[in-house]
From TrEMBL:
The lineage of its organism: Bacteria, Pseudomonadati, Bacteroidota, Sphingobacteriia, Sphingobacteriales. It comes from the Bacteria. One of its GO terms (cellular component) is extracellular space. Residues 1-24 form the signal peptide. It comes from Mucilaginibacter mallensis. Residues 42-187 form the FAS1 domain. InterPro entries: Adhesion/Biosynth-related (IPR050904), FAS1_dom_sf (IPR036378), FAS1_domain (IPR000782). GO terms for biological process: cell adhesion; extracellular matrix organization. This is Uncaracterized surface protein containing fasciclin (FAS1) repeats. GO terms for molecular function: cell adhesion molecule binding.
Length: 194
């Protein structure tokens, strides 16, 4: 009787151990160096951006607009963050206008026009492009549309509803709460022109 009891205890322990292994999170932490900045997939967008020298303006604007919680939450998102050079290409008057309190909603819309709900990799976008006759329609958190295509150099190009184009220059940078892609231009809409 004692042997049967011990066998049951050993079997139960074995089953519990295997269940624990089955349900344990085994997500590996991925680090990637982007423009001299090491980003870790265990950090959210803001923690990684605080170390970044090349995408800091976008995340400073997110903070100014009061929508930083969107980028810190556990909800998965995909961010097409314009690099700092993209913001420097903008007419200074446009940025000055967006920073005025009266234009806060325009700033929020501009920033969220660079964000998708969910985790969307470059492979996902390329697959959609191939399945949809050379273009994929992506809906942003600002409820605007981005048309994704692949150019002759095999770059993924995003075009907004106003015809502004931006190339994804660095893609699939894993964050704790999604994916960061760096793009070469700000996808600004005509209604934000001063």
């Amino acid at each position: 009787m004692y042997n049967i009891f011990m066998k049951k205890i050993i079997l139960l322990t074995f089953l519990l151990f295997n269940c624990c292994l089955l349900f344990a999170q085994t997500t590996a932490v991925v680090t990637r160096t982007v423009d001299g900045t090491t980003m870790s997939s265990s950090n959210d967008f803001f923690i990684n951006a605080s170390h970044s020298k090349n995408s800091s303006i976008f995340f400073q604007l997110v903070d100014t607009a009061g929508i930083s919680q969107t980028f810190k939450s556990d909800a998965l998102i995909t961010v097409f963050a314009p690099d700092n050079q993209a913001f420097l290409k903008l007419d200074k008057a446009v940025l000055d206008t967006l920073l005025k309190p009266a234009h806060k909603q325009d700033l929020v819309k501009l920033l969220l026009s660079h964000v998708l709900t969910g985790k969307v990799t470059s492979k996902d976008i390329a697959k959609q492009i191939n399945l949809n006759n050379g273009q994929a329609v992506l809906t942003t958190m600002a409820n605007t549309k981005l048309i994704a295509t692949i150019d002759a150099n095999r770059n993924i190009v995003l075009t907004n509803e106003n015809g502004n184009k931006s190339v994804i220059s660095k893609f699939d940078i894993l964050q704790k709460n999604g994916i960061l892609d760096i793009v070469t231009s700000v996808l600004i809409s005509k209604n934000t022109q001063p």
